[in-house]
Design brief:
Layout lengths: L4 H13 L2 H16 L8 H43 L15 H24 L22
């Protein structure tokens, strides 16, 4: 599978930006900048250096983060669609749900909120949840004999 230069670049940069060492480097740069204040007499130029550099980095990182997030969300949606497609009693109408507008989503949301409320009511009215494994008193391990 051929990947674009931007995909390779953004993946590498996102990996690098997410490392603890990158954070430490950023902290060290800020400390060095702060300690250099007296050397530059806390001038406007000295302040402009940190303001400009952080603004540029922030501006570029917004697009990098958005690109990475868009790809992750798209991949997750495809995976969820595949799970829905393969589960026997799942409704295929839920496939590609993210493409619906807010009004259409509200119809689905209302139905599932009702199902969730009914399930919670059933759970409250039952003396115990029969789907949960029972636990032995002493070992704290699931009681395999009660299945």
């Amino acid at each position: 599978m051929k990947t674009s230069w931007f995909l390779k670049f953004s993946n590498a940069l996102a990996q690098m930006a997410g490392r603890a060492s990158t954070f430490v480097v950023a902290v060290v740069l800020v400390i060095v900048w702060g300690l250099s204040g007296p050397l530059f007499h806390f001038s406007d130029t000295w302040q402009l250096v940190i303001n400009t550099s952080t603004t540029i980095v922030t501006f570029l990182m917004v697009f990098l983060i958005q690109n990475t997030q868009n790809r992750d969300i798209a991949a997750m949606q495809i995976k969820l669609d595949e799970i829905i497609r393969t589960v026997d009693k799942a409704h295929n109408a839920l496939l590609d749900l993210e493409e619906l507008d807010e009004k259409e989503l509200a119809v689905f949301r209302k139905r599932y909120e009702k199902l969730a409320q009914e399930a919670r009511d059933d759970l409250r009215s039952a003396s115990r949840d029969i789907d949960m494994p029972s636990f032995e008193r002493e070992g704290g391990r699931p009681d395999e004999t009660k299945r």
